[in-house]
User: Which sequence fits this backbone?
């Protein structure tokens, strides 16, 4: 049988072994029920307890117990393995959560610093545009003044 993960996280191998042990347990329980029915129907008819029930059976099948014990041991091992895996996942998730929180904090600080820097650059751009506008208007005024001066000079020169 191929080994691979299924929907519940059990490997196919585990499912196959569980299916075979389930079959064994079912066949064991049905055969022991049949034995119990035969023995209890004849021997325990007269031996009823105070509440009207027969006493418990004493002759349990030893082979069935060893199968059950092996199955129980396997299930306990699976339980221990799964608990170990769960605890590892919890630790790893805790570490990842801590790392994520640190990264979120760092990114938040970086975003605030960038927003502050963008605001500073906007202010600087506004100041530079204002300076440019005033310089351009000054140049225009200088050109007008220069033109006036040149006209006056030309008039003076012509007069001379």
Assistant:
């Amino acid at each position: 049988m191929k080994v691979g993960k299924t929907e519940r996280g059990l490997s196919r191998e585990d499912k196959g072994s569980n299916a075979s042990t389930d079959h064994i347990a079912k066949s064991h329980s049905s055969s022991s029920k049949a034995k119990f029915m035969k023995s209890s129907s004849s021997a325990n008819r007269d031996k009823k307890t105070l509440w009207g029930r027969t006493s418990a059976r004493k002759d349990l099948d030893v082979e069935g117990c060893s199968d059950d014990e092996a199955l129980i041991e396997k299930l306990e091992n699976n339980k221990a393995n799964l608990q170990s895996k769960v605890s590892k996942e919890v630790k790893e998730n805790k570490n990842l959560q801590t790392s994520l929180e640190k990264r979120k904090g760092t990114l938040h600080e970086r975003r605030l610093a960038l927003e502050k820097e963008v605001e500073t650059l906007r202010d600087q751009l506004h100041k530079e545009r204002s300076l440019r506008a005033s310089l351009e208007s000054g140049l225009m005024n200088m050109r007008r003044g220069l033109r006036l001066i040149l006209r006056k000079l030309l008039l003076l020169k012509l007069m001379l």
Remarks:
- Confidence is low (pLDDT under 50) at residues 1-17, 27-45.
- The first helix runs from residue 12 to 43.
